[in-house]
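P.,

For your records, the input lines for the assembly:
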Amino acid sequence: MLVAQLALNAVALGAAYALVAIGFVLVLNATTAVNFAHGESVVAGGFIAVALTGVASGIWPSSLPGIIFLPGVLLLTALLGLAIASLAYLPIRNKPPVSVFVTTIAFGIIVTNGLNAGFGAAPRTVPALLGSGTVEIFGITASRQSLAIIATATLLIGMLAILLQRTQLGRKFRASAQDPEMARALGIRLTRITLLGFALGTAFAGAAGLLLAHQFFITPFDGVGLILKAYVAVVIGGWGSLRGATLGAMLIATFEVAVASVSSQSLAEGLLYIAVLLVLLIRPEGIFGETQRLRA
Amino acid sequence: MSSALHVSGLTVRHGSVVAVRDATLIAPTGGITSVVGANGAGKSSLLRAIVGLTTTEGTIHLGDRDITRLSIEARIHSGIAYVPEGRRVFPGMTVAENLLVAGPSGRRVRSARLDAAFDLFPQLAARMTHHAWQLSGGQQQMLAIGRALMASPAVYLLDEPTLGLAPTVVDDVANSLIRLADSGATILMAEQNAGFAARVSRNLVTIRTGRIQSAPVEN
Amino acid sequence: MSPDRTELIQRQSPLLAGGGALVVYAMFIASSYDQRLLTISGIYVIMVLGYQFIFGHAGALSLAQGAFFGVGAYVTGILGSQLGAGFLATFPASIAIAAGLALIVGIPVLRLASHYFALATLALSQLLLLLAINWEPVTGGANGLPGVPPIQIGDLRIDRGVPQLAFVWGLAGVAILIASRQLRPIRVAMFTVMRESPLAVPAFGIDAGLLRLRAFLLSAAFGGAAGALFVHTNRVVSPETLGFGTMVTCLTMTVVGGRFRISGAIIGALLLTHLPEWFRGFDEYYLVMVGVLLLAMVIFVPDGLASFLKDSSWAGQIRTRARPAEPTDVLDAAKPTLNITNVSKRYGGIQALDRVGMSIETGEIVGLIGPNGAGKTTLANIITGIDRADSGSSKSAHIDLAAATPTAIARNGIARTFQTPQLPNELTVRTAIEVAAANNGGHCLTDTVITSCQLINILDAPCGTLPHGVRRRVEIARALAGQPHLLILDEPAAGLAPDEQTVVAEILRAHAAKGLAILVIDHNIDFLQPLATRLACLDSGRLIADGSVADVLADDAVLTAYFGILRQ
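Structure tokens returned:
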């Protein structure tokens, strides 16, 4: 019984982490750039939801379910992604990768401190996606929020899969990820692919912010921890693989929920960081291997 | 005979290395023109310059249009298709996806072209759901040519289509190129294998240490 | 005063002038608050100087500099406030523990490339932060530990204000001296090769792992020292010293000031410590501005404010440690200098090399030909240790090549050049040759090599400014400078005009006459035919011919594989 609830929590957390990790990989595939502002994009998504809740409460007297804000969060964080791409990536795309690390870190600093100045450092929350409380399914008491997170994440990932697999734009995106020079030689405009990757990737991070902020609260300074988790998921799952990133996110969430249930959240995080180091030391190519050659 | 592609005074530098010197070349409309030369003679650089992957001096005309100053994307859209050395198919995408990605934006035209590519390369039609990495070298070469066909270009640029292929497969490639040329396509091909080039080409040009050695010779 | 020191002073003269002005300001004008800011600046100078080693010279984004600073701070904080230990114990302990941590983490982590390294160091920082917050009995938890004593050496107590300021800047001066000693021109040149021509690192005889480890240890030691001084001025140690904020401060100072020059550390530290005072009105938005500044610097002034200072120090020459120019004739001893047997290598489904055997004797010039993809470069990579053979053996006179690292192979007399010359743009010809000579133990031959490769007139030109043909000669000189017994050249004639090819052939012939064994990979038969004493031909990974030039060029298999084009 308890195990089933824990498992549900783990899957819900994993689904939210999967959005973060997938967003990270989308940027990686579109550019090979590591976006160090990705954790801050999650935080930004959470605070955009906080802001939208505030605006909505002024218009609509009774409280609205969090899911209402999903389109707004997606749209605004996609714009944030375009800003990251055009300010922190495109101007220096031909410089060594370390430059992009630093500019995206700078962007993260801007986002963190902008949010801190605007909202303050105190933890904030957002409304539950589809109401709080629990429902009984198959004799299991399940939290509505957990179920809603799983459903929302599944919906978003499914829509992404359709976009990438079934549309011409998605084919162009994947072709550019596999061989950018050849993609250019087919007439594909790589700058557009880059912008698309950043917009989608950051929007996924933003959605995760909305999903996570209700249960775990959110402060402007949570970005560092989140990017590390996304990164671990991506490294475990095989650098650049979307499926691997999802799997990696599930593993991390399971680990976190399991350790936290018998001990503390801090210990879970500490062990996770040790795990990062160990994974990097033993198999930097990921536990499931590098599935796909990205840019040469 | 009209020229589909007219290159004149083309010089390509890689940093301080001159890969192609003052090359002038005409590919007449319809049929295959081959640039033959040894490794490192400048064949690939010539093709890469025409498609716009390297910067150049000189002028390039596609039909009557001067495309010298166009970006690579604009050159492609004005009617050049490029099949690089080593095929460069997208390994993680299926055969059909590899073809479709190079197609035009209209869905109906795209699927019509897909049918045309499968007509020319029935081997590909049989494997349309396979991933490109699962194909043999020869099949990958056909996929790369088919991908070029998807854009319905005025001129095909083919870089060493027989490189690393077994002799029997070379025959397959030769046959499909002849079929493509017979259907009215204009092809400019860089080739090390002179026997193959002589077999399929209408015109032959030789290149040596970056210089075109001879005017086009009717084969 | 030794010439070394005079040069140092000349080089640092803008720094000394600026320093003088600062001293006057600090002693006579500054308020006690200003003095405190200056003290903190001095502490950050030390941290940034350390960070420049790893982030600037080694080119690796470490996100652990804040953590090393914090470790230094906690060691001093804990020992000082809990055990009452004095500065002479706590300060070295802070440095040693920070450096020790870097050593433990560094040996495995430094192997990792770019983002892996960055994220591994970030994980380390987060781990230490968690530890500081949660290990309450020792660290005092989230509130930290108060009551850290001021600096006390014996009976001498360094009080706040001018004494502390002078002490901290005195140590910053020591740090500057250590940094400038560490950054001797030859080592700066080695770092440059590592950053800009990674492929050629072994060919230059550089042990990249060791160089990176040195940079990482220095960064940690400097960071630990800075952290220790920081808690002495603050008198409290708290988790913030370990946090990402400290890392961001350090990164911003380094990027703004400049990541290579000592003056950059000073400018960055002074500026970023005082900036918040000048922009007080911005309140919390100040840090947003810091982010904007960091972003703008990377895009518009990537080498930092120090790049506006005139400073010729990096163009400085490597001091040859006055060794007698007496060529040792190791090359004369006749011996088989390379012996490979049955070497095979597969990549994916392709048999790149199939049971290849070959031996090269002193004084021979062996030409290796074959069509594209025949395995020629793979063979060169296996001989030089960049690739490992799946089976078979390769040995040279001194060393088992199958077991040695590429650097060890280069140092043991097997030199190579690359298809595209691999020379960092900003190194001068002289420096490039001398770095290789110094690392590969051929110092005394440098002058001979420079003469024989006809480089005497362009010794001080940066490699990036040279035309291709000359770069080729510089790279050959780089290879010869290590006094090798075997030289492997990958397409030395490619892209050269006929007269340039003649010059290269002459250089090679002259050195072969002195006993050097040479393996030349090339397509250009016109170049090889008169040069080679023997010819070998690879096709699809198999050695299909090996013999006299005339025999190989008449061989049917060679003709079909390679000259198919001519037999139509």
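Two observations worth noting. Chain C touches chain B at residues 371-373, 420, 466-469, 471, 491, 494-495, 523-524, 564-566, 568 (CB under 8 Å). The CA atoms of residues 146 and 298 of chain C lie 38 Å apart.

Regards
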